[in-house]
Amino acid sequence: MWARVVALVIKEFLAVLRDAASRTVLIGPPLIQLMVFGYAASFDLNHIPYAVYNQDSGYAARQLLARFSGSPNFQQVATIRNDAQIAPLINDKDALLVLHIGQHFTRDLLTQKPARLQIIIDGRDSNTATLALNDASGILLAFNQQWAAAHSQRGPPAQLVMRAWFNPNLRSRWFIVPGIVALLTLVVTLLVTGLSVAREREMGTFDQLLVTPMRPLEILIGKAVPGFVIGGLEGGFIALMAVLWFHVPFVGSVAALALGMFFFLLAAIGIGLMISSLAVTQQQGLLGVFLFLVPAIILSGFATPIANMPEAVQLLTYINPMRYFLIIVRGVFLEGSTIPMLWSQYAPLALIGLVSMSAAAWLFRHRMA
Question: Against a cut of 0.85, is the pTM above it?
Answer without folding.
Answer: no
